[in-house]
Design brief:
Blueprint (H helix, E strand, L loop, with lengths): L6 H10 L6 H11 L4 E4 L6 H12 L9 E4 L3 H14 L7 E4 L5 H8 L5 E4 L1 H9 L10 E5 L1 H4 L2 H12 L6 E6 L4 H10 L4 E4 L11 E7 L5 H9 L6 E4 L3 H13 L4 E4 L5 H12 L5 E4 L1 H4 L9 E4 L6 H8 L9 E7 L1 H14 L3 E3 L1 E3 L2 E3 L1 H9 L1
Parallel strand pairs: 1-6, 1-7, 2-4, 2-5, 3-4, 5-6, 8-13, 8-14, 9-11, 9-12, 10-11, 12-13
Antiparallel strand pairs: 15-16
Helix pairs in contact: 2-3, 3-4, 6-8
Length: 381
């Protein structure tokens, strides 16, 4: 696979320290280099970004000043993360790229566009706005990537994404990558691609995911905040906690601020700079818990997450998979903790049965996670 890439990419691979490509990279890269449209489903943490970024960079003619490729994602955070990867892997190639995201200063983005980027990394709404204003010319774009494609093809983004794809040359290549793919979304993906190859990767040894334990605490809704507080106090923990309701997130933030706990929040209604600051503080280890909504945290690769906490039960199995995939990456172990009521407990057990993952009930004892029996034994003594 690597032998077919341009020298600057082979050099970047040597520097990266990666020993061997992952399964999704081995399967996807040759197909993309062959010019085929692709729909790829592969678990989180298996190297999907590089699976499209390597052939994308390989296809760019650095001597042509026109825009040649576009990468779309639904969240600002994911766009910035992929753009940073692009900067790393395009070093020394002369390829110019820029990021275009909603919520950012439009004037500044127009200045960036004057530098004639050959690759744009964008959220769909802002990009379509600039296409309609004729500030972005798509007629020479030969590749469009939909990262976390299942999020881009939900009804909220579908028309925008379809309009962007239609604005490109007719023989463009469309690539869609996602960790999960529901049948309805797959049909939408097939509709915007031409005779696509479909790849499904189950689990990946090369991605060396560690052992992930799935546990839960049974509690009343009002007790979830007390449990969350105990989780933030666990030794050497770095926890990403998921909540469904943006309104609730502010309540948690205020209560934790009052108790002087090291936590931050991340949701889509925050200003761009606030979101970036929260993510940076979490990545740099300045806070040991980040409470986030799914949209804001989708697809993010944050090293060293020890615990994924579900304050609210995910709405479906696919969401459970995406959340759980934030921990146990690159050989590290992790724990997925669900805080559930009795009614939610049944649903959680069903998810884990279908995913074929063992699920254990736990309690807190002397500030540590313990088995129920352990606590009772100690109490009897």
């Amino acid at each position: 696979m690597l032998d077919n890439l341009k020298p600057f990419l082979q050099e970047a691979w040597q520097k990266s320290g990666f020993e061997q490509p992952t399964s999704i990279q081995v399967a996807a890269v040759p197909m993309i280099l062959d010019g085929k449209d692709l729909i790829a489903e592969s678990p989180t943490g298996t190297g999907k970004t590089l699976a499209y970024l390597l052939p994308l960079l390989n296809s760019i003619d650095a001597n042509l000043p026109s825009l040649q490729a576009v990468v779309l994602a639904s969240s600002q955070e994911l766009i910035m993360q992929v753009y940073q990867e692009f900067q790393k892997w395009s070093e020394g190639s002369g390829i110019r790229g820029t990021s275009i995201i909603g919520g950012a200063n439009v004037k500044r983005q127009l200045e960036k566009l004057k530098k004639r980027p050959q690759v744009i990394f964008a959220t769909p709404g802002r990009l379509l706005e600039l296409i309609k204003q004729k500030k972005v010319k798509m007629h020479e774009v030969k590749m469009i990537v939909l990262d976390e494609g299942d999020q881009l093809l939900i009804s909220e983004h579908l028309n925008t994404v379809q309009s962007i794809v239609k604005s490109t040359m007719s023989d463009r290549q469309v690539l869609l990558f996602s960790a999960t793919m529901k049948p309805g979304i797959e049909q939408q993906a097939i509709a915007i691609t031409k005779s696509p190859e479909i790849i499904r990767i189950e689990k990946d040894e090369a991605a060396s995911s560690g052992d992930v334990e799935h546990i839960y605490f049974l509690c009343e809704p009002r007790d979830k905040i007390k449990l969350l507080e105990k989780i933030t106090r666990l030794d050497d923990s770095k926890s990403l906690a998921f909540i469904n309701d943006i309104g609730e997130i502010e309540v948690f933030k205020e209560k934790f601020r009052f108790k002087e706990l090291s936590t931050g929040i991340l949701h889509s209604d925050m200003k761009k700079l606030e979101r970036q600051a929260a993510l940076k503080a979490f990545r740099d280890g300045k806070m040991n818990m980040l409470i986030a909504t799914d949209v804001a945290a989708r697809g993010l690769d944050i090293q060293g997450i020890t615990h994924v906490v579900q304050i609210d039960l995910p709405k479906d199995i696919s969401q459970y998979v995406h959340r759980a995939g934030r921990t146990g990456r690159m050989g590290a172990d992790g724990i997925v903790i669900s805080l559930v009521t009795e009614r939610e407990e049944r649903e959680l057990k069903r998810y884990c049965r279908e995913l074929k993952v063992p699920l254990y009930k736990r309690v807190f004892y002397q500030g540590k996670i313990a088995e129920e029996g352990q606590k009772n034994q100690k109490l009897r003594r």
